[in-house]
Specification:
It is built from 14 helices and 17 strands. The strands form three sheets. Strands 9, 10, 11, 12, 13, 14, 15, 16 and 17 form a nine-stranded antiparallel β-sheet that branches. It has a four-stranded parallel β-sheet with strand order 3-2-1-4, sandwiched between helices. The protein has a four-stranded antiparallel β-sheet with strand order 5-8-6-7, with helices on both faces. A hairpin with a 2-residue loop joins strand 11 and strand 12. It starts with 8 loop residues before the first strand and ends with a helix. 44% of the residues are buried. Bound molecules: adenosine monophosphate. Adenosine monophosphate (AMP) binds next to strand 14. The site of adenosine monophosphate has 12 residues, from strand 14.
């Protein structure tokens, strides 16, 4: 693949914050970002060279968008199979439609990963209540039931503790089929961002430790506070998955570290990922530039980290009420997504805090460095 020349147009499907930060990275490298989005004034549209406003299954909009760009990439994975086929017939699409289809469907994803020899929690396809009973017998209680499509940020899942939970959970979660998963008693959750280009160059950023609140990513710590050997294994797994998929682009690989020091992959996201936002301030080349480089055929520099970092998401009206304090606090490196309305649970921005390389502090130090954004419960637990 010949690298795209400066001034070429990078088409990005999706108009949210990942598209915004990808568009800014593209502009830094001299590309023009053209966004396909449903929101004319959304986070990505605000910073882009051009915008096509339309639904992701509107063939006329997809055609106009594709005809205006040189290559297509994504910040949003849930575009229809038809839409993907149409885009792929008109322009090079990276990552390929094949990868998006796998990541859109938990069953396809788990089957692919399992067949590629990647360690996963045990899982069962659940099409009926009797399948659910079979899964419960095999997995034991508690276990997790998830939708196979369109689940994110912990939406579309239920924890089942006893036989009487089966029928209500089966009725509540939709669309069917569902997937039942063994509950992992994890010590922590980590993720690895891996980028790969058409020449087969692969780089991984340091493993990141992730903490969730109310099912939404709250904090990422980089590097993850896990043994070096485990971090190397996590990066190796991400590399194996990227190669098995023939990935062109960047991908987040979420994993559980179990109590025995084993790694189990939870899910993959073939796009920039919230848990890679720390790279924006702690790495010479961040995940967004790495993504743009990978899809445009440019060389991939080492995914070096010059500082340790903590990333905290700014979520909903409560966090945004603290924006003036965030702006007034030295050391909080803030990223606002330009969303007009702070609805509860909505990701509005994030802050990164840097520490010297090797100097990531313990819990108290992390909360202290977050100043107005410290989590009271965690801080008082120290
Ligand atoms: P997901 O929608 O698969 O990303 O799951 C959201 C969150 O639910 C994860 O980040 C975990 O904290 C938790 N979770 C998901 N699957 C499992 C599992 N099999 N065992 C334990 N916790 C899980």
């Amino acid at each position: 693949m010949k690298p795209l020349s400066p001034n070429a147009v990078l088409g990005i499907v999706g108009g949210g914050q990942l598209g915004r930060m990808s568009a800014v990275a593209a502009a830094r490298l001299g590309f023009r970002a053209h966004i396909l989005t449903t929101e004319a004034d959304g986070p990505a549209a605000q910073v882009a060279h051009a915008v096509t406003v339309g639904a992701y299954d509107d063939h006329d909009a997809l055609r106009r968008f594709a005809n205006a760009v040189d290559i297509v990439t994504f910040e949003f994975e849930n575009i229809s199979a038809d839409g993907l086929d149409l885009l792929s017939s008109l322009r090079p699409v990276h990552p390929s439609g094949h990868i998006l289809r796998i990541s859109q469907d938990r069953i396809a994803e788990k089957t692919f990963l399992h067949d590629a020899g990647i360690p996963l929690a045990p899982f069962h396809l659940v099409k009926s209540e009797s399948d659910l009973q079979v899964a419960a017998d095999a997995l034991g209680y508690p276990f997790i039931l998830k939708t196979t499509r369109l689940g994110y940020d912990g939406k579309g899942q239920a924890r089942l503790h006893a036989p009487e939970d089966l029928a209500p959970a089966f009725a509540r979660l939709s669309p069917h089929p569902l997937v039942a998963e063994g509950m992992v008693d994890f010590a922590c959750e980590v993720s690895v961002m891996v980028a790969r280009n058409a020449a087969g160059e692969v780089v991984t950023f340091d493993a990141t430790e992730n903490r969730h609140r109310n099912g939404i990513l709250d904090l990422s710590l980089a590097p993850a506070r896990i043994p070096a050997e485990l971090a190397t294994r996590a990066r190796g797994l991400a590399t194996d998955i990227a190669c098995a998929l023939d990935l062109i682009g960047i991908m987040g690989v979420e994993m559980f570290v179990d109590r025995d020091g084993g790694l189990l992959v939870n899910e993959i996201a073939p796009r920039p990922h919230n848990s890679g936002h720390w790279t924006m301030n702690a790495c010479p080349v961040d995940q967004f530039e790495m993504h743009v480089r990978a899809v445009t055929g440019l060389p991939l520099p080492p995914a070096t980290r010059h500082s340790d970092a903590v990333m905290k998401n700014l979520i909903g009206p409560d966090d945004m009420a603290l924006w003036p304090q965030v702006m007034a606090t030295p050391g909080l490196l803030a990223h606002h997504y330009g969303k007009a309305q702070a609805r509860p649970g909505r990701k509005m921005g994030h802050v990164n805090v840097l520490f010297p390389h090797g100097g990531l502090p313990g819990e108290f130090g992390v909360q202290d460095a977050l100043g107005p954004l410290a989590t009271p419960a965690d801080a008082s637990a120290e």
